[in-house]
Specification:
The protein is mostly helical. About 70% of the residues lie in helices and about 0% in strands. Helix 1 runs antiparallel to helix 2.
Length: about 70
């Protein structure tokens, strides 16, 4: 498991736990589905961001400047 996956797992579990605490008193199936979908969307965006931050960045060369 790479660092992006570990970070995503930690972030999504906190998001899901806090969401479950908030909607537990109401507990309708629609709210649980919305929480599951929201957690999925949150986790996918966190994973994409973490992967972009891990990607190696090339230094711009002098040939790419157009002045």
């Amino acid at each position: 498991m790479d660092n992006a996956q570990k970070f995503t797992l930690k972030s999504a579990s906190v998001f899901g736990t806090l969401g479950a605490i908030v909607i537990a008193p109401i507990a309708t199936p629609v709210l649980w589905a919305a929480l599951a979908y929201g957690t999925y969307r949150f986790a996918s965006s966190v994973y994409r961001t973490a992967k972009l931050k891990e990607a190696p960045r090339a230094e711009p060369s002098e040939d790419t400047w157009f002045f």
